[in-house]
Amino acid sequence: MTAVPYLSLSIWIPIFGGLLALCTGGDRNAQVARFIALVAALAGLAVAVPLFTHFDASSAAMQFEEHAAWIPYIRINYSLGVDGISMPFVVLNSFITLIVVVAGWEVIQNKVSQYMAAFLIMSGLLNGIFSSMDAVLFYVFFEASLIPLYLIIGIWGGANRVYAAFKFFLYTLLGSLLMLVAFIYLFIHSGGSFNIQDWHELSLGLTAQKWIFWAFLLSFAVKVPMWPVHTWLPDAHVEAPTGGSVVLAAIGLKLGAYGFLRFSLPVVPDASQYFAPLMITLSLIAVIYIGFVALVQTDMKKLVAYSSISHMGFVTLGFFMFNALGIEGALVQMISHGFVSGAMFLCIGVLYDRMHSRQIADYGGVVNTMPKFAAFFMLFAMANSGLPGTSGFVGEFMVALGAVQFDFWVGFAAATTLIVGAAYTLWMYKRVVFGAVANPHVSELTDINRREFVFLAVLAICVLVMGLYPAPVTDVMHASVDQLLKHVAAGKL
Amino acid sequence: MEFQIPDFYPALTEIFLSSAALLILLIVSFVRQGAGQVAYKLSQVSLIIAAVLAASPILINIDFGLMFGGESWTLDGAGITFGQQCATSGKMCFTFGQMFVNDGLAIVLKPLALIAVSLSLLYGRRYVSDRRLDTAEYYLLVLFSALGILVMISAGSLLTIYLGLEMLSLSSYALVAINRDSVQSTEAGMKYFVLGALASGLLLYGISMVYGATQTLNIIDVARALVEQQANNTIMVFGMVFVVAGVAFKLGAAPFHMWIPDVYQGAPTSVTLLLGAAPKLAAFAMAFRMIAIAFWAFAEQWQHMLMLLAAASIVLGNVAAIAQTNIKRMLAYSAISHMGFMLLGLTSGVVNGDSYHAGNAYAASLFYVVTYVLTTLAAFGILMLMTRSGFEAENIDDFKGLNRRSSWWAGMMAVVMFSMAGIPFFVGFFAKFLVLQFVVATDHLWLAVLAVMMSLVGAFYYLRVVKLMFFDEPVETAPIMGGIGVKIALSLNVLMLAVLGLFPHLSMSILSIVMNGSF
């Protein structure tokens, strides 16, 4: 137990900050709302950083635990805690929130207070998801976080935003409702406990495990998203405003993957092993097939969206090979993808703010008018395609190694992503940035301003640091991942 | 034969409210100008006094310490003795030869129902005066329907239930048709009357069979006769089917739901609110007393019947609501599906002869219906806030761009919609969660899966309202009307949905204690 409830603070500071920003009302006080949001995001990050610095990497146990009875009537507790698997995501989320607030500073002129409030509240809810130790608390945060993103896509989104917002909401709800039934089932069969760690020890027959696995799978697969339930993501990404895309890609997609590690693997280990071939197959389809789908996109955001699905396929692949390299690699990949995909969407946002087009064909020769931007974009594109020295390489390489350890051909198939990924990212980069100035609009582009420079530079530093020296991140995971693997290997039968 | 004066104390609320209604009737016949205004004020005062009277046993003898106790899963009702304030001892407090009962359930439901009626009047005040419906009769009919609700809640005999039900129904028929120049309104009133009379007939027929089989009308005696197997089973089962059908009609559960959409749509919105809120509490009490208590011994049989009703209601209500463009009709279908959810709790009381969790399962139903009433009040309250003289705000499209007109009310309506859809942190989620928990506990997984899948369908049409308010441009720009009092009450009502969603423990525990003590 720590004296300072860092986790609670990292959840509730952004939420109350958001509510406060909401109180500023209409757009007359937009500047006030922006500053409240900035302060809340900074404060949120400030309380999340100690989670990393005070973390005891040698222990696999939950840390920074907080327990309080929430609804004793049905034995729901307000139990928070993080281990090496979840802690990095709380920090990442708090960091991305700050980036998003800064990125939306001038761009959003319409209902600023609601925009900032939605992002801050969502940030708090996402932190809640990663730090819940009680399943219902997890579920409540999980589902509540749909509301702000639904509104973000619907209010500040593009032309087809209503369709995208509904598809996003209903798709995700579909999965999570079945998970809720599974939770209740587990509650009853564990003798009345919603504590996730009690469920880890709960013995279950294989048939029950299989059913629960499917309920979890549907929920998390939609969220990851895995092939073939991925179709909501390109729509959501394309229509969402830049900030929405960034949060969705950087954090939203990690929820599903995190769910696999927190629920599927430890609660139903035998079913996880039973269905591992299926999961690996689906992951490989996502990696390879979706990679090729990304290649033919004409919309930049859609391309990055498909590339996200492909990268997340790598993550689920890493999980279901049940070796340390695979899981740790997948976790590194998740964090790296948080930086890289967020940065990619921000870069596209920078272009979109100037040209109001996401079509690759409308661009060409951007480097001539925006040299500084082109440099940053280059770095992130390289990271997205997994160039050594960037964070993108570390995770992919670890997962590929794990895959070869598991089965050579799986590793071989997975490694093709290094080629396909490079192909679609760099080809897109070439068409947008290089070449002669394509049209008069491009020639009128102005290079990034100081605000844009700051957030891109910060992300660039993160990408490079993680690529060159990933040890601090992998160190905190070792103990937790080892324990998880031992638990899965032992099984429950 | 010696005449014994019955104990009047348990029926104090009803006696007060009926005297007050008659007194108001007398007063307004001497008022020349603004009789409606006078009747409104007096009705509100009477309703509030009645609510205080109804709640007095709690207010006198509340023990908060026990309510916050940790281990509430195993509460056996012994902790709090709501009923012991009555003249008689024991948990139940009977009077009028067991025709009338004032137990924990009644003590909790009556104040809630009276507050719901009072809020309905408050929210509908401007609406009815804009349409010149605020005659004294309107308020008197409301008072009499409130009296019917109270009698239904406190019924100790099948006949008392019928008495209360008819009192409520007859007042409601008239209220639905109160706008007598409107074709829609009179048509709805007529439909309601014909179908309602038919259902009352069914119910009465069932009651007569139960009487024939058990030689008694007292609910406790019926239950005892069935437990001791003194009844003719064939007649009994027939009677039970009729009673269940009658109750299902009053609840508006499919396939006895046909009147709900027409009446909700046709009635003036203020009357729709009066019908949609408080009477649901009475209907729950009726279902609980007539089915769960009286037919306790036949639990396995009626649970199956209710299960089908619940499944049909949830499916039909949610699917049909999608196609609606009139928001009152949409809320009507949503009401059907919500009643289905409420029934789910009642189906989960007895599992394989084990009734250990019955009280808690029924408490889940009660929690559901109480939160539903709170949500409905808010929904129709906001609906009426958007109306003006000559403008009904009935179509879903009337909500278009509400966020631009008033962010506050758009936010409030969004909370109501998300709560109805069962999205946390709003109370609707915990209501559904609690009910589902008992459905899963009875191993009816298919029912739980069906219910959650249909909530997904339900989420669509609730989200559509949110979409119209936030994503679309406004069609008109008229400001939101309404007095400051109404706005504050309505806002508090909506915020309750969030507060109860964040801290549902206390209300859940109280209701659980009540239900465990009520049978």
Structure description:
The complex is a heterodimer of chains A (493) and B (519). Chain A is mainly alpha-helical and 493 residues long. Chain A has 22 helices and 2 strands. A two-stranded antiparallel ribbon of chain A has the order 1-2. With 519 residues, chain B is mostly helical. Chain B has one domain. Chain B has 21 helices and 2 strands. Chain B has helices spanning 12-28, 35-60, 64-67, 104-130, 136-153, 158-176, 183-214, 219-227, 233-251, 259-266, 269-276, 278-293, 299-322, 327-346, 358-385, 402-405, 407-421, 427-441, 445-471, 484-502, 505-517, and strands at residues 94-95, 100-101. In chain B, strands 1-2 form a two-stranded antiparallel ribbon. In chain B, helix 13 (299-322) packs parallel to helix 19 (445-471), helix 14 runs parallel beside helix 18 and helix 18 (427-441) runs parallel beside helix 20 (484-502). The longest helix of chain B has 32 residues, at 183-214. The A-B interface holds A 25-26, 69-75, 111, 114, 136, 139-141, 143-144, 146-147, 150-151, 154-155, 161-162, 165-166, 169-170, 173-174, 177-178, 180-181, 184-185, 187-188, 192 and B 70-73, 403, 407, 418, 423-425, 429-430, 433-434, 436-437, 440-441, 445, 448-449, 452-453, 455-456, 459-460, 463, 466-467, 470-471, 503-505, 508-509, 512. Chain B: InterPro entries: NADH-Q_OxRdtase_suN/2, ND/Mrp_TM. Chain B: Belongs to the complex I subunit 2 family. Chain B: Its EC number is 7.1.1.-. Chain B: NDH-1 is composed of 14 different subunits. Subunits NuoA, H, J, K, L, M, N constitute the membrane sector of the complex.
Quick summary:
The complex is a heterodimer of chains A (493) and B (519). Chain A is 75% helix and 3% strand.
User: Treating each run of at least 4 consecutive H or I residues as one helix, how many helices of chain A?
Assistant: 22
Order of helices and strands of chain A: HHEEHHHHHHHHHHHHHHHHHHHH
| Mean pLDDT across all amino acids of chain A | 85
Note the main sheet of chain A: 2 strands, antiparallel
Indicate the proportion of strand residues of chain B: under 5%
Number of domains of chain B: 1
Helix/strand-derived category of chain B reads mainly alpha
Q: What Rg of chain B, in angstroms, do the CA atoms define?
A: 22 Å
Global shape of chain B: globular
The total of helices of chain B stands at 21
InterPro entries (chain B): NADH-Q_OxRdtase_suN/2, ND/Mrp_TM
Subunit structure (chain B): NDH-1 is composed of 14 different subunits. Subunits NuoA, H, J, K, L, M, N constitute the membrane sector of the complex.
Organism (chain B): Viridibacterium curvum
Catalytic activity (chain B): a quinone + NADH + 5 H(+)(in) = a quinol + NAD(+) + 4 H(+)(out)
